[in-house]
Amino acid sequence: MTESEVRALYGWAEIDPAVPIVAGSVGTWRITYHVGRYGVDDGGVVKFAWRDVSDWAVPQFESPSAPEYATVSTTGPASLRASFEKQRYTRPWRLCVTVDVFDDSLTEGDSITLTLGDTSGGSLGSRAQTFCKEAFEFRVAVDWCGTWVYTEVPSPKIPIVSGPAHRLVVLGPSETTPDEEGWVGVKAEDLWGNPSTGYNGTVQIDAEGLTGLPETYQFQSRDRGIRRFEGVKAPKVGIYRVNATDSANGLDAEGNPLRCVEDRSGHQPFWGDLHGQSEETVGTNPVSSYFRFAREAALVDFAGHQGNDFQITKAVWKEIKAQANTQYDPGRFVTFVGYEWSANTPLGGDHNVYYPGEDGPLHRSSHVLIPDKSDIDTDCTHVTELYVTLRGEDVLLLPHVGGRYANLNWHDPELEPLVEVYSEWGEFEWFLREALEKGYRVGFTAGSDDHKGRPGAAPPGSGSFGVYGGLTCIYATELTRAGLWEALKARRCYGTTGQRILLEVTADGKPMGSALHASEPPEIAVKVIGSAPIERIDIFRGLEQIYTFPQTTERAEDQIRVTWSGQRIRARNRLVRWDGNLEIDRGQILEAKGYAFDTPAEGIEMVTERSVSWKSVTTGDADGVVLKLNAPGETVLDFRTAVLTRTVTLQEMSESPVAVDAGGIDMKVVFEGLPLGVGREVAFTFQEAALPAGCHPYWVRVLQTDGAKAWASPIYVTV
Is the backbone peptide bond immediately before 330 cis, with ω within 30 degrees of 0? Predict the structure, then answer.
């Protein structure tokens, strides 16, 4: 049936105002469904749906003065009943307002209007989706006959665009040699982390001795908020950090550390995001845009695309491979062909599948959303079937925690050299610990699992994702598929929470990921160049934390930090809501700052002389508040959230940190004097006195004072 026939028989929909929507803006939007020739019977239903990855604020129909108030109305004689539902329509259109039609029917020419952000009763309006979309669709479907059979009608599509510049970002490579040509990127982002495409500010650039950068640069419309400067060189050995300032708009940023070395040992660090998906499955914007964003906006060196297998048709698989191969640019930007094998957790759970070249077979976990069943015999419904099918192939599987989590009861050491410990879904150190506890020899990666069209630079927005997307740093001989592939198979990589923290770990001179035999405990050498002051570096042997640098933590005398962290469960609904407040019974709060909040939807809400309140969610990570106090030691802090209520005195905190278990997985609250950190460059060695026989995985975790983390892949030492 043609679109015009659908329009005539079943109706159509439009949006007002029909102008581009600024990401995260608050306003009023009216979506009107016009009834077609068949009408809508008494007992019929109209659904106004949008993609489930969207974080458009949830509409409510009860309180006219509260945010997100929505209403429905009709020009016809029927009555309407509206409700917001999740996962009650077809994937990926599972966020929808369902409107029941009753007490009469509607005829051709009647209409139903959904008003999102109705301000007539005092509501401030509705907050739009916080990330950009080339064509955001409110998909309207009608059950015109009251038979639970829905027909989708022509529906409005409208761009969601970035807002004004809120911050600057400076990015570049992490390593160079004297007079080697490199690059530095400067970009402007809006409040929600989208590249501010309309930015035309002038930035002053402090190159810290690097050559090839202008002293000032005015952004042009063609830049679309991002400018990559080529031909940048470091004249001599040292650490460089480029600074950019827009004085007129009050914006400034410092770049990631660039280390200039006299000579490389053969491996150099490259940054990228191995994990995310586009709108061909459940994400945002097409796969062509996905890879372009990673290269041009995130300014990463490599990217993978991992769509859910049960949504990848033959045509989609062809397009994914075509875009990965077309946009592969050796020496500049590396793409990997792959998909996400997405079985339910009891059958193995989520595993990313990567191929080293231009092609590879697609073995789905199921055909649940694939109409064409002609190749259903190629499905691998259990992870052990996938192992058997792929064994002997040049392929890499990467278990991870997404909506589903990978089931580590099964493991193939030939196919699975890595596990992912962090993504926008959360921080999953429990996952790496489980892998090590089971004796698996795996390295660590981090990615975004981005669904919002922003691989490599992926703020979580305000939906089901909890944290900023992670990055993987790979130590490779060259920026090619072959170079990165060899390093991944060798586990010569580490993951971060999205910051380009430069980290080196060796055991008796062997790099992370190595396996070696020794007759005595190895010397562990750690070098870190942070993007912020380093709070602590922990060395683990297996599950045991055996050393922490520094051994004594310097703390501020007049500032405290209260942090809360963890996740409810391993599965999809793991998010913990920590909205709450803290009060002191004497003295005064001189200043209150947020710690590691992840989005503008979180943070401090109100501060008084003796109290501070906040909104916060965690998915394994830590959030918190830092308070500067003028208060005596006997002052009592009263911490109150729906998760945990606890009192503690300043005197208790001055003696040692007070950690309180809050249940769940790694859920806890920590009260302590504010750690000051040990600077941004740290190097030390550590050696145990003795080791029992056996295999010992040594791995390192870095924590910065801003909450950023890095996890180095283990070195497996057999005594």
Answer: no
